[in-house]
Design goal:
Elements (H helix, E strand, L loop, with lengths): L16 H4 L22 E6 L3 H16 L3 E2 L8 E6 L4 H20 L4 E6 H6 L1 H6 L5 E3 L7 H7 L6 E3 L20 E5 L1 E2 L10 H5 L3 E2 L2 H13 L4 E5 L13 H9 L6 E5 L8 H9 L6 E3 L7 H7 L5 H14 L4 E8 L6 H14 L3 E6 L7 H5 L6 H24 L5 E9 L6 E6 L4 E5 L8 E9 L3 E6 L1
Parallel strand pairs: 1-2, 1-3, 3-4, 4-5, 5-6, 7-10, 10-11, 12-13, 13-14, 17-19
Antiparallel strand pairs: 8-9, 15-16, 15-18, 16-17, 18-19
The structure holds iron/sulfur cluster.
The site of iron/sulfur cluster has 10 residues, from helix 7.
Length: 473
């Protein structure tokens, strides 16, 4: 075990939740509350990086800004405030944002009143270091401080940067109405933060402790979403199936959301294998509205590697869980996440991952090579000792394997009929629609008389590794 000292593991700093709802938090500002002045409506453009949780947070930020009289715009050229909602999972995600900031600074030199903010996980991860790298940034704000965005916009008029970096165990934004784009699929955050502490992951340090939004509030949200025309709800959380609001668990939540009149489909992402309870499996098996599709992150097929990752399950437990899911829900489609080249991963460990992927035959997979991140437990405790070319070789091997398996599985759909929720025009052909099957497979077919939002039966004529192609039957 190495002893690294150059980057400390960030100790999350929490504030009392009651304080976070105050209009001004002097301890969280570089200027006094008395300097807040020149309140004026701003035109804000939000640029989103990273995962679906961030996309959902951008909708939340738009809701907070709109409620306080500001306007969000879809053309960056119209904006006098640009907020980058960032990701910290990988180093290249941060490099991309730094490059983007340099580009935006050219514009700021011409437009002195342009406000640039960095929000989200990278802001929480880099903190003051971000201002060293990009001193022209006006707002640095972590995921638990978005409620203070209007205050931050007022505060920066004096030219001082605003830092909002306290984590808040009680902040769930349950009272905020996000502003969503029109569509048929709405993403609904049901839980924030994570208590799992996987050693490779920065999330618990930048998003804080797990907290769930009460079921009755979520149900009201879903009823509103139905009124707005949404047909499919995707429940979101870092470990979405560990949801518990003190009275109701995740299975109860699934049943409850699926019962809302007008909802056609309910999905969720991303569950943790250790929290795949009987209650969750029962709802997936027996509620017709809960889709028969599960993204179940594996990460490694080797138990010693899983232990070093602190994933809290063994390869054998994962294998048994998949068996159980397939016994109970035979048509289930499974996808996963896999990391190769994690600290200490031997050729034998890698072979176990490869073998487990061959055995389980996931419908699809997101595959990565491990990259060391400052601030994680692995960075502090473990050696990133698998050589880069070796990581690349292992990654290429599993990508080739998975492409082959995905193509084979999709071929088995040829000749079958699948229910598809129509989402919109196909990217390549305006005469065709695209949509997702119940098992989340992208499907393309001629429009005929179908309308966006309809569920149609599509007979599959051909398939690639990523798409089913057919005709309404
Ligand atoms: S479960 Fe693990 S990988 Fe997922 S967000 Fe939590 S710490 Fe990160």
């Amino acid at each position: 075990m190495k002893q690294k000292s150059e980057f400390p593991i960030y100790k999350p700093e929490y504030q009392d939740h009651a304080d976070s709802r105050l209009i001004a938090q002097p301890s969280d500002m570089r200027m006094g509350a008395t300097k807040i002045k020149n309140r004026m409506a701003r035109k804000v453009f939000i640029e989103t990086y990273g995962c679906q949780m961030n996309a959902s947070d951008s909708e939340l930020m738009a809701g907070i800004l709109t409620q306080s009289g500001h306007q969000t715009v879809t053309d960056i050229e119209d904006a006098d405030v640009i907020l980058l909602n960032t990701c910290a999972i990988r180093e290249n995600a941060e490099t991309k944002v730094i490059n983007r900031l340099e580009h935006l600074n050219h514009r700021k030199r011409r437009e002195s009143n342009l406000v640039i903010g960095v929000c989200g996980c990278m802001a929480q991860h880099l903190r003051d270091k971000l201002l060293e790298a990009a001193p022209y940034v006006d707002i640095v704000m972590g995921p638990d401080a978005y409620r203070n965005l209007p205050m931050a916009l007022n505060a920066v008029v004096s030219g001082d940067p605003y830092l909002g970096l306290q984590l808040d165990k009680g902040e769930d934004y349950a009272d905020i109405s996000p502003i969503r784009k029109e569509g048929i699929r709405a993403w609904l955050t049901i839980q924030r933060g994570c208590d799992k502490m996987c050693t490779f992951c920065i999330v618990p340090f930048v998003r804080g402790r797990e907290r769930s939004i009460p079921l009755n509030i979520l149900k009201d949200d879903v009823e509103r979403l139905v009124d707005e025309g949404f047909k499919e709800i995707v429940l979101l959380g870092q470990t979405v199936n560990s949801y518990h609001d003190g009275k109701h668990d995740f299975g109860e939540l699934l049943w409850s959301i699926a019962e809302v009149e007008g909802i056609e489909r309910v999905r969720f992402t991303s569950p943790h294998p250790a929290d795949a309870t009987e209650s969750m499996i029962d709802a997936m098996e027996n509620s017709p509205k809960v889709c028969k599709q599960l993204h179940l992150p594996l990460q490694s097929g080797s138990t010693p590697v899983l232990e070093r990752m602190r994933r809290t399950y063994t390869a054998e437990e994962y294998r048994k869980l998949v068996q159980k899911l397939r016994e109970r829900i035979p048509q289930i489609a499974l996808s996963t996440d896999v990391i190769v080249g994690f600290c200490g991963e031997t050729e034998e460990d890698f072979d176990k991952t490869h073998t487990l992927m061959e055995e389980i035959r996931f419908d699809s997979a997101f595959m990565f090579k491990y990259s060391d991140r400052d601030g994680t437990l692995a960075n502090k405790m473990l050696d990133d000792d698998v050589p880069e070319p070796e990581k690349s070789r292992r990654l290429n091997e599993i990508i080739t394997l998975q492409e082959h398996i995905s193509a084979e599985i999709n071929q088995t759909k040829v000749g079958t009929t699948v229910p598809v929720l129509v989402e919109g025009n196909s990217r390549r052909d305006n005469e065709q629609y695209h949509g997702k099957s119940d098992t989340f497979k992208s499907t393309v077919f001629p429009k005929e008389n179908a309308q966006i939002g309809d569920i149609v039966n599509v007979e599959i004529h051909s398939a690639t590794a990523h798409t089913l192609i057919g005709q309404i039957s």
